[in-house]
Description:
zinc, elongated, Protease HtpX homolog, 4 strands, mainly alpha, transmembrane helix
Amino acid sequence: MNGYFRTAILLAGLTGLFLAVGYMIGGQGGMMIALLIGLGTNLFAYWNSDKVVLRMYNARQVDERSAPQFYGMIRDLAARAGLPMPKVYIIENPQPNAFATGRNPENAAVAATTGLLNQLTPEEVAGVMAHELAHVKNRDTLIMTITATLAGALSMLANFGLFFGGGDNRNNPLGAVGTILMVILAPMAAMLVQMAISRSREYEADRIGAEICGNPTWLANALEGIQRAAGRTVNVQAENNPATAHMFIINPLHARSVDSLFSTHPRTEERIRLLRAMAAGGGASRGSGGWSADAGARSVWTGAATVPSSAPPSAPGRRGSVPSTGPGGGPGSGGTPRGPWA
């Protein structure tokens, strides 16, 4: 509950900052305009943010026929989490990563890159996707959408104040100097709050994701592999849309920072340490109580995959035996092997 309380406080602070900027620009009228802008942008984001981000990354929706193993895994994990079946997407991108989006569990979507599916073991992929389903379960996707929208709207409002607020506004005791400071500091403060919320939600999703998949070590190993591979692989789409970086399980940007005020993600080493401590303390069901790749016919793994040449050089040696599917969608259907999922 501490994580939820902290998130509520941060969201309240961001909303208050938004209204304060509106008041400094135009008094009570400006505050009401700011409130309407905030409500309007959040309403748009509530209904459309998932579609926008999936389109941004050219995500391809898959089903049980086009990606039987991956889709079956998500269905098993969603059932373990007590969630409705989300929409499932695959992103053609060599960097291993994943994210979740959607306004609520009934309208959620999870997406994984081909880099993630081709370079990790089935158990590690399960750990990653369980983490993303934990975000859905916690409604973090909605929280982060609201946070990002408010932060963006605040920047817009502050710039509006620079051009139209003027230096004679009686509500701004510092006049023109105050307006300039507001334009610089308000978006920065909003960004800090947004990043703080993102970091706190990642820790919680790690814990609940480990409980969903049943083995914290799977997620810990996955984070270790993703962090190493992501540092060698440029995610062009994320670099072009840095505002979406907080959505991913590992920061996809090359200009990653340490666990500081300006980081969208906690330190990966700290996340791994907490997950391994959870595993050592028996904090999640393991063994027969966890998700299993052999749990049902829809999750059977056979054959061997060929890792694409775009993957990091170390990937083939690290991740050996996962099934391959050809153009027909089943193992051994001919053509160039594309991994177990595509």
